[in-house]
Specification:
- The complex is a heterodimer of chains A (583) and B (246).
- Chain A is of the alpha/beta class and 583 residues long.
- In chain A, the strands form 4 sheets. An 8-stranded mixed sheet of chain A has the order 6-5-4-1-3-2-14-7, with helices on both faces. In chain A, strands 9-8-10-11-13-12-21 form a 7-stranded mixed sheet, sandwiched between helices.
- In chain A, helix 2 (76-82) links the parallel strand 4 and strand 5 (86-95).
- Chain A starts with a strand and ends with a helix.
- Chain B has 246 residues and is α/β, with parallel strands linked by helices.
- Chain B has one domain (18-245): Thiamin diphosphate (ThDP)-binding fold, Pyr/PP domains (Rossmann fold).
- In chain B, 31% of the residues lie in helices and 18% in strands.
- Chain B contains 8 helices and 8 strands, in the order H-E-E-H-E-H-H-E-H-E-H-E-H-E-H-E.
- In chain B, strands 2-1-3-4-6-5-8-7 form an 8-stranded mixed sheet, with helices on both faces.
- In chain B, helix 1 (21-35) crosses helix 6 and helix 3 (93-99) packs across helix 4.
- Classes of the chains: A alpha/beta (583), B alpha/beta (246).
Amino acid sequence: MTKKDFQIFITGPAGSGVKSAGKFLQKLLNTYYHTFGSVGYYSLIKGGRNYFCLRISQTPIYSNTYKSDLLVALNKDCLFGYLDRLKPKGILILDNTVYSSLTDTEKEKLKQYKLMTQEFIEKAKEKQILPISYLLVIIGFLSKSLSVSLKKAQSTVKKNYSKAPSHIIESNKKALQLGFELNKDLKIGVEPIRRSTTNKVIDCAYASSLGFIKAEGKIFTAYPMTPSTPILHYLAKMKKKYKIIVRQASTEIEAVGFAIGANWAFARTLVATSGGGLDLMGEFISMAGMAEIPLVIINAQRPGPSTGLPTWTDQGDLDLVKAIGHGEFPRIVLAPYDAKSSYIMIQQAFNLAEKYQTVVFVLLDKHLTTSLFETKKQDITRKIPIERGKIDKNPKLDKNGFYPRYRVTEDGVSPRPILGHPQSIHITNSDEHDIYGFSVEAGNERVVQHSKRLLKEKTILKKEYTPPLKLIANKGADIAVVSWGSTMGAVYEALTKLGTKTQNFTYYHFTWLYPLNYVDLTRKFSRYKKVILIENNASSQLRKELERANIKVTKTILKFDGEPFFVDTLYNQLAKIIRKTDK
Amino acid sequence: MKVNPQEYKSPIVPTWCPGCGNYIINSMLMQALSELNYHPHEVVLVYDIGCNGNGADKIRANVVKSLHGRPIPVALGIKYAREDLKVIAIGGDGGLFWEGVAHLIATAQRNEPIVVLAWDNEIYGLTTGQSAPTTKKGYKTPTYPEGTPYEPLNPIALVLSTNAGFVARTYTGDPLHLKETLKEAISYEKGFAFVDILQNCATYNPTVSYYRERVYRVKKPFKTKEEAIKASLSFEKIAIGVLWKE
C-alpha cells in the first residue's frame, strides 16, 4: 500500500547523536520528498530523552504530526517515554540489546506495534564500526526503504560530515552500508516525488543569521541562552567569510548596551536572547526609546516564567515585548513563522529600526530556531533594499556649537547626523532633553519631545503596518481562524485538510504584531460570526490586542506543554469546532 | 596647530555644587583632549547617571548619556563600530563599582580598547549622600546613620587583578597631575585604560584635606603587578600616578 505521508521518530539519550543523525536523514530525504524535522531535547548534556521527529510527504508540509508511523528508541527509558508518539500498528525498531532488557510485562505493551528487532550494535562491533557511528546503521537501515541508494547516502555523509576526521567518515560510511545490508523487509511505502532538488532544509536560527548578513549587519553580540544560542554559533562560523564581528557578551546587559553603542555609530548590530535575557535588557530598551537609537533584538521564546522549560517551545513573550522598558515609546514587534520569513523579517527589522530610530523585536521560539524547514534557495537569497532612514550627510552646527539631534519634524523622525564630522557634534541623551539633547526638567520641552517620539508610532502605522496574512480565503465564511508566529505550519496544514470537508472559515496569520491598526482589524473581522484564536501559550496573549479592535474571540485553542502544535491533534480540535458550527 | 580648549566649551552652565571636584575634572578633561590635539568631533564621551552624568551637556563633544552603571558597554559598542574615534566612558563610583561592576571587570579582563574614567567621590551625591562602594567604613550616611558598616572596595586593586593594560589614580586636589594622568590614559593605545579619580564631594563627602595629607606621587609605573597591587592597597598612604602600564 502506498502512502502520501510518513513520520519517523528517533529517540535516544543526549550524546547518542540523535539530533545530528536525524538532520542528516532529513537532508538525505529532502532530495526525494517534502520534509519537516523537529528536535526535542532536555536541558542536560548526557542522558535524558532527545528526539528527532522527521515527517516526509509527497505534498508540501510545514509541521509534524503527534503520532508517528515509525519509532526508533535507543534505550528503554526513551522507548517508554515516547511510545505514545507511535501510532497503533506503527513500526517499532529496537536494537536486540534494548529489547532483551525489557521485562515480560514491558514486552506485552509492545504487542500492538509491528516490532522489528535487529542486532545493530552487535553487527557494528563485528565490523569495527566506531560507537559514534552506531546510529547511522539505523539511518542506513531506514534509508534503504526510502528510495535512497547506498551510494547517495555515502556521498551525503561525506558532504555532511566534511569537517570530521577521515576515520570517522569511513566508519560512518561502513555504518550506512551495514544498515542497508541488515534491512531485508522493512516496508515504508511512500513513493518519492522527485530525484533531486536544490531546496535546503534549514532552521530559522540559520535563516535569521543569513538575513542579518543580507541586511549588511556588521556586529552580532549575545550572551548564550537557549533557544537563541544557535544564532550565535552560526554567525561565529560565518564571521570570517562575511567580515562581521561576533562577540560573546559577559551579560545580556552588556550585549544590548553594546548594540546600542554600535547602532548609534551606524554599524548594524543584532542581539539575540530568550525571555529571561530580555528581561535583563529592559532598561536599555527603554533608553533606545528615549535616546532614539535603532535596536533590533531577536527574542527566541521558551516556556516561562523564570527558568521555565529551557529547551522547549512557547509563545509566552508577546505581552513582554509589547511592554518591556519603562515609560512610553514606540516599538515594533515582528513574528516570522518559517525560515523564509525569518530571513526576510530580520532585514525588514533593521530597516524599520533605523527609519524610526527605535526598538524592533523579532519573536522566534524554540520550535523555529531548531526545526528544519524545507526552503527554496531563492527564498534565502532575496535582498530587501537597505533603508537607513533619515541620515544627515551634510550636517550643520547651530550657533550654540551643537547639531540639533532631536529636531521636531512632521513625522516625528529627526535626522541622525553622520558621526565624526566637524559639523555633527551632538548629544544623545537618556534624560529628557530639548532639540539639542541638552537635559531638561519638567515642562514644555518634555511635552514637545515626548509627543515627537510618540508621533513615530502614528507614522509607523501609516507607512509600515502590515495587516495579517490571509492565508486561506473562503467567500462568505462565518468563521475566522487566527494565529501568529510559529504555529502557522500546523494551523495551515490542519485547515487545508479541513478545507476538503468545509469551507466555512478564513485563515488570518499575524506576522506584524505591534503596533496594530485597530480600525483596519475591526473592519476586517466584523463579518465573522466566530473567531478562533490559536496560540502556543496559556493566556491567549494576542486576544488582548484583538479585543482592542472590538474583535470578540469566541474560542481559543491553546497549548502550553512545551511542545508545538501538531497537525493531527490540531485538526481534530479544529474540526470539532468548525464542523459543529456548520450544522 | 594646537586645538583650542575653547572648542570644548558648552553653553550650558554646570549645576554642580560650589567646590565640587567635577568642575576640575571637566575642565582638565577639556584641556587634556585639546592638548592631545583631538577636536571635539573626534571624541565620543559616554556618561553614567549621577553627578558625573549631569556633566553630559557641560562639555562640547559627541556625547551619549547612557544609564546608571552602563557607560562601558555603550562605549565599547561605539568603539567597535568606529575604531577611528576616541571613546571615553565616564562613570561614578556607584555606577562603575556596584551597579555596573560586571562591565568594568569583563572589559578590563578582555583589555578592550576604551578609556574608563571613574569620578570617584566615595558617595552617592545626586541621590543625596548614601553610602557608596568606596565610602570609608564608619562614615555616616542617610542609609547608615550609625556609620557605614563595611570596608570600602578598592577599585585600583580590583582592576589590577584583571588584564587591564593601563591603571592610574589621580585626584582633584592636584589639577595638573589630573590633567597629565588623563592625557596618558587617553593616549594609551594598547587596550583598556582605567583612571580612578579621587574627588571631593563638597556637600556630602568633603575630602580635600584628607587626600592632601595622604597622597604621594608615583613617578613611573611599577615594574611588576605585585608591586602595583601592594601599593594600591594602602589607604593611609595613597599612591597617585600611573601605577601600571603594559
